[in-house]
């Protein structure tokens, strides 16, 4: 059997051969059934496929807090296992049938590159809703009601992980001190909160008149705002962002504004005014918090979450709203 080897792409291949390039994003790794190959998070690895004896099955292994979603489809059309029928399963590549297909067999003597890239994603939080509703009208005190099996409270983490010890229903949080040290849920003072479902770390607002004070408001468009500088950007929140990064707030120096989807993950729709778990996020105004996401509908607007009810909307970038910083948890 011809030798097979895996190398980082910075090394040069000495043999003319078809190549399988494995691109592994943050969030997991790829292993093979034979144990011959392993490609870790953040690596790009290459395998030379030189004969008709190659037969390997590749499995995407997610890290804690992630799940494997699918094999990524490449625009070039050379993404292995990206078809509808195979993209969610372990990926097998074998060449024994190439011999009966001259065009395929010819690939083994070329420098053609094919790709295998997993998509790892973090799960999002559930809604927090733990009550049912009666048809046609009226909310119940608990998860009961007409056709309750079809209602929100019967599904997701709020049903399977209903434990208020670390956050309401399916939410799961850990309090962090100013250096990033984990604290018990009973701690009376904390600076940040780690979302154990998504892995994100969130700034906790204060009521002391300082940089993290709950009453501070900003126009949209400071550092880490998305959209590549199109139209109006205001640098208002840069003081908060730069100060947090310079101080390694809660042990991190890569704070940013969350996207609208990330910010929505904090909304607890079982509560209102504010629609958030106040046991972990005290001093939260029942008001709008900017995300980093610009509006596609209006180049002078951007997205925010109103934590009075937990709904998302867009508004003029010149409006003054609150912000809550996030760290991606990597």
Summarize the structure.
This protein is mainly beta.
Please describe the topology of this protein.
Layout: E1 6-8, E2 18-23, E3 28-32, E4 38-39, E5 44-49, E6 55-62, E7 67-71, E8 91-94, H1 102-107, E9 113-116, E10 118-121, H2 157-160, E11 173-176, E12 182-183, E13 192-195, E14 201-203, H3 238-246, H4 260-264, E15 288-294, E16 301-306, E17 311-316, E18 326-327
Parallel strand pairs: 2-9
Antiparallel strand pairs: 1-5, 2-5, 3-4, 3-6, 6-8, 7-10, 11-12, 11-13, 13-14, 14-18, 15-16, 16-17
Give the overall silhouette. globular
**Main sheet: strands, sense, barrel:** 5 strands, antiparallel
Strand arrangement, major sheet: 12-11-13-14-18
Q: Identify the CATH class of one domain.
A: Mainly Beta
Element-by-element helix/strand order: EEEEEEEEHEEHEEEEHHEEEE
């Amino acid at each position: 059997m011809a030798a097979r080897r895996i190398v980082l792409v910075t090394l040069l291949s000495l043999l003319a051969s078809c190549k399988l390039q494995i691109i592994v994003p943050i969030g997991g790794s790829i292993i093979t059934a034979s144990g011959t190959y392993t490609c870790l998070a953040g690596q790009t690895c290459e395998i030379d496929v030189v004969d008709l004896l190659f037969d390997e099955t590749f499995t995407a292994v997610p890290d804690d807090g992630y799940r494997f979603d699918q094999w990524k489809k490449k625009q070039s059309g050379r993404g292995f296992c990206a078809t509808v029928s195979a993209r969610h399963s372990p990926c097998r590549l074998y060449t024994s049938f190439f011999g009966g297909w001259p065009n395929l067999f010819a690939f083994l003597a070329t420098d053609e590159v094919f790709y295998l890239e997993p998509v790892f994603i973090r799960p999002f939080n559930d809604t927090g809703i733990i009550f049912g509703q009666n048809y046609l009208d009226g909310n119940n005190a608990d998860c009961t009601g007409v056709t309750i099996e079809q209602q929100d409270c019967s599904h997701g983490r709020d049903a399977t992980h209903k434990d208020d010890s670390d956050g309401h229903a399916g939410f799961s949080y850990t309090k962090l001190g100013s250096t990033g040290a984990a604290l018990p849920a009973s701690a009376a003072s904390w600076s940040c909160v780690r979302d154990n479902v998504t892995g994100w770390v969130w700034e906790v607002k204060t009521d002391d008149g300082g940089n993290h004070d709950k009453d501070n408001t900003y126009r949209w468009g400071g550092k880490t705002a998305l959209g590549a500088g199109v139209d109006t950007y205001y640098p208002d929140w840069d003081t908060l962002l730069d100060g947090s990064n310079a101080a390694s707030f809660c042990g991190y120096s890569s704070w940013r504004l969350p996207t609208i989807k990330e910010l929505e993950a904090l909304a607890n729709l079982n509560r209102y005014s504010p629609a958030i778990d106040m046991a972990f996020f005290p001093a939260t105004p029942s008001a709008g918090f900017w995300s980093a996401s610009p509006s596609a509908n209006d180049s002078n607007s951007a997205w925010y979450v109103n934590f009075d009810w937990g709904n998302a909307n867009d508004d003029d970038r010149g409006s003054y709203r609150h912000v809550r910083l996030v760290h991606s948890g990597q």
